[in-house]
Automatic annotation (TrEMBL):
It comes from the Bacteria. Signal peptide: none annotated. PANTHER family: GLPR-RELATED TRANSCRIPTIONAL REPRESSOR, SCHLAFEN ALBA-2 DOMAIN-CONTAINING PROTEIN. This is ATP-dependent DNA helicase RecG. The lineage of its organism: Bacteria, Pseudomonadati, Bacteroidota, Bacteroidia, Bacteroidales. It comes from Odoribacter laneus YIT 12061. Residues 409-472 form the Filamentation induced by cAMP protein Fic-like C-terminal domain.
Length: 482
């Protein structure tokens, strides 16, 4: 739309300065106006009006040949070349005009720079675009060729991968109908089908999903866990740093959450069901999203989970798609994974859905539990998800994560037993020669769950007929120390 009418300008002014309109008194502020125009190009488009003051009053300005030359030179300093609609709208009864710069949505050509520097819009302010956001726009513009997850790593070999986890992914994918029965057990062939191996070379996605990270150079595959006393970061009650592949980090995160969020029980069914302060489905979805959709490009990046007395915060590097805002996230929206290759493998394993319903699920689960809807805080290069709740203080371990000590001999006995593999409650009780289920749950099962040594195979359905329990990384570490 070319603006050649003062009435259109007045309608724009009525919208006030914001994400799509900027006022400048004269082209004496041309540089700042061009920076804002660059920011509009990197967003959804917008309009810069010269000859309108900060209060929205039309004052106009004189337009000389020099003014037009200065404007042409400024437009030529935009990179790449941009389509800028320039209008000179005369004011009635005088020689002054309002100069209009307008740009439409230019997503396919982003990112844009003015004088070699990119700009972005944050509410009504124009600011320099951070490097990670600029890189993200470059990746979107140049397609899949430069996605970090697709980059090959010639130093990565099959010996660096947990092949048992690969085969487990195949087994679970077949069980849920997302992989064909004839997928087979040939590891290179499986990795090739998953898009993790090409021409005999593994890519970064393979390392994130299945890597044995104790001897690999992937410092970004890190999870930071902390329980703070009170509502700020002044006093630690528990702190851990876990290095590992996707599934190890997911297990460690959920074990830590089970340890520090209070449990309550209901007996509406034959079996007692345990409930976290924050609904399990909601908090697990939040953790999954943070690990799946985070940016892995920066070696110093990591996911952090911080538990306070009044909330749980999950922070990850990266941002939402540039055209997403809080309202779009809460409404129905398409799935736009940051790392589609990772997301595809997780979908095959039925860890992840592909319908963009995760945020809606979190909101729904929190509403059903009588909790506030989760909040998102979006920064220039990171996203923080916040669950508001009343976290009851629970006993905590030492800060040093390598010194795991079970609270009782019963817990240690259970952990040693599960070293043989996944077992049901009935199988565990028979092996331990126990016959009183309430005592078993109180002295063995619940302490082991709360301290993060074991996790259920079907955490969303505690009374699942095929429910079994297995060791976490923390449980395995305890066995090593024994």
């Amino acid at each position: 739309m070319i603006i050649e009418d003062l009435d259109i300008i007045k309608r724009l002014i009525a919208e006030k300065e914001g994400g799509l309109v900027e006022f400048k008194e004269t082209t004496g502020q041309l540089e700042r106006g061009m920076e804002t125009l660059c920011a509009f190009l990197n967003g959804n488009g917008g309009t810069v009006l010269f000859g309108v003051n900060d209060k929205g009053k039309v004052i106009g300005q004189e337009v000389s040949d020099k003014t037009k030359r200065d404007i042409a030179e400024a437009i030529n300093r935009l990179e790449p070349v941009a389509m800028v609609q320039i209008s000179y709208v005369p004011l009635p009864d005088n020689e002054k005009k309002v100069i209009v710069f307008r740009v439409e949505d230019s997503k396919p050509s982003r990112p844009f720079c003015y004088k070699g520097r990119p700009y972005m819009r944050v509410e009504s302010a124009t600011t320099t675009m951070p490097q990670p956001a600029y890189n993200e726009l470059l990746l979107q513009r140049d397609g899949n060729r430069y996605r970090w997850e697709l980059l090959a790593n010639s130093n990565l070999t099959l010996q660096h991968l947990d092949t048992n986890e690969v085969l487990k992914t195949v087994r679970l994918g077949i069980e849920c109908g997302r992989l064909p029965e004839d997928t087979g057990t040939d590891i290179p062939a499986i990795l090739g089908k998953f898009g993790l191996l090409k021409d005999g070379v593994l890519n970064n996605a393979a390392a994130v999903l299945f890597g044995k990270h104790e001897d690999m150079e992937y410092p970004q595959c890190l999870l930071r866990l902390a329980r703070f006393k009170g509502t700020d970061k002044t006093v630690f009650m528990d702190s851990q740093r876990i290095q590992g592949n996707f599934f190890q980090l997911l297990n460690a995160a959920m074990a830590f959450i089970f340890k520090h969020l209070s449990l309550s029980g209901t007996t509406d069914t034959l079996e007692r069901e345990e409930h976290l302060t924050i609904p399990y489905k909601a908090i697990r979805e939040g953790v999954l999203n943070s690990l799946t959709h985070r940016s892995y490009k920066e070696a110093g990046g990591s996911v952090g989970i911080a538990i306070y007395d009044d909330r749980v915060e999950i922070e990850n590097p990266g941002t939402f798609p540039p055209d997403w805002d809080a309202e779009k996230m809460k409404s129905e929206h398409e799935s736009k994974p940051q790392n589609p290759l990772l997301a595809n493998v997780l979908y095959k394993r039925k860890v992840l859905e592909s319908w963009g319903r995760g945020i809606g699920l979190m909101m729904s689960e929190c509403r059903k539990a009588g909790l506030p809807e989760p909040e998102y805080k979006i920064w220039a290069d990171s996203v923080t998800l916040i669950f508001r709740c009343d976290v009851t203080n629970r006993p905590s371990t030492d800060q040093a994560p390598t010194k795991y000590r079970p609270s009782t001999d019963q817990v240690l006995a259970l952990v040693k037993l599960l070293d043989e593999g996944e077992l049901s409650v009935k199988e565990i009780m028979e092996a331990l020669e126990l016959n009183h289920r309430p005592t078993f749950r109180m002295n063995y099962l619940h302490p082991a769950l709360n301290e993060g040594y074991i996790v259920p195979l079907y955490p969303e359905q505690p009374s699942h007929p095929k429910q079994k329990y297995r060791l976490t990384e923390k449980g395995l570490e305890l066995l090593k120390q024994q």
